[in-house]
């Protein structure tokens, strides 16, 4: 292995997923020379193993469920999903795990792509080792941005490594439908993959250590999703931990803390994530390998003048859209500093990722969908706000009844009683994913409740729930 070449840039980006691509886009738009380093596929986790393939698997399940709730259509939607067609559609959305299109986009913005393993080698220096062992040294005049994302973590259980379990990547890319699937974990990945594979014909058992699914959202979110999964034929066990797993005659056998066993053809562990920082040379800049990186609101690593950590690696919000938001902020801050202009420290400015602190939106694409932004009631109380929760049954809204016969759902807004603004909003029900941006505008914009009263929802839409919520608050 020999060092062959050295190159100088204004900015070096480690990781060419959506976050790294957006940092590169913003710095190139500012006229800064930018190199981007990727060891796998350009486009990253979201494009090939997370957001895109999972939603391609889920969309047919949701569409069928919605159709079966519409009078006059219900009787026409019978039988099983065409699993091969769904999997083929998923493969198309991942570009068959080829990144030519994404590479072409990088070329179009003028960023230089280096394929290989990128590692920090001291301040403002990155080495890239390619598949042939050749090493290139890159130096950054202004910034290095770590955008390497996160990876699934398998639990330290007896037998776990030996059964070749699924993690999130395997769950979204499987070429066939398992006859029986055990899902360990009740977070977003567990709930979504249980929904998808149950709809595709797998017999799903979900084992959740806590007392509900989606435990970071309002309690009713997990309860409604679990109820729907059970009605669809899945088994959801809460308060259940797996103590060991073994593969016997091709089947996975999971033993629980209650001493009983659950059998499946595959087992998915959706039990947490860790930063992809274990082998990127953090020790060469006095940081701990494998750690989450703590940043300020301009996404610069605390204590550094040149190192940025954007997206999952800073552990603020492990969501693609939030990472892309951070990337836009980081790119603007890097460009400002490169031009000798101090970044704007004020909240809601061009160089501050203020939305990370209480205005983060998320949609869980289960049936029903669960969508939330900002703080839950428990989080708001824990943060010291004096708040009131306002709840409305979504099925009482005229638009919801037209959307689906027997519509079941729930809406909650958490109102700050001192400032008369919303601290958080949660919707659960069919189709609510498209409602959440209006709530995000209200929370991020700190729109007074008195002003929201004049934002008139169209009739008859599900959005009329806003009127019902405000009426309930006013009493």
Automatic annotation (TrEMBL):
<keyword id="KW-0285">Flavoprotein</keyword>
<keyword id="KW-0520">NAD</keyword>
<dbReference type="InterPro" id="IPR001100">
    <property type="entry name" value="Pyr_nuc-diS_OxRdtase"/>
</dbReference>
<dbReference type="Pfam" id="PF07992">
    <property type="entry name" value="Pyr_redox_2"/>
</dbReference>
<feature type="domain" description="FAD/NAD(P)-binding">
    <location>
        <begin position="9"/>
        <end position="324"/>
    </location>
</feature>
<comment type="similarity">
    <text>Belongs to the class-I pyridine nucleotide-disulfide oxidoreductase family.</text>
</comment>
<dbReference type="InterPro" id="IPR016156">
    <property type="entry name" value="FAD/NAD-linked_Rdtase_dimer_sf"/>
</dbReference>
<dbReference type="InterPro" id="IPR036188">
    <property type="entry name" value="FAD/NAD-bd_sf"/>
</dbReference>
<keyword id="KW-0274">FAD</keyword>
<dbReference type="InterPro" id="IPR023753">
    <property type="entry name" value="FAD/NAD-binding_dom"/>
</dbReference>
<feature type="domain" description="Pyridine nucleotide-disulphide oxidoreductase dimerisation">
    <location>
        <begin position="360"/>
        <end position="466"/>
    </location>
</feature>
<dbReference type="InterPro" id="IPR050151">
    <property type="entry name" value="Class-I_Pyr_Nuc-Dis_Oxidored"/>
</dbReference>
<protein>
    <submittedName>
        <fullName>NAD(P)/FAD-dependent oxidoreductase</fullName>
    </submittedName>
</protein>
<dbReference type="Pfam" id="PF02852">
    <property type="entry name" value="Pyr_redox_dim"/>
</dbReference>
<dbReference type="InterPro" id="IPR004099">
    <property type="entry name" value="Pyr_nucl-diS_OxRdtase_dimer"/>
</dbReference>
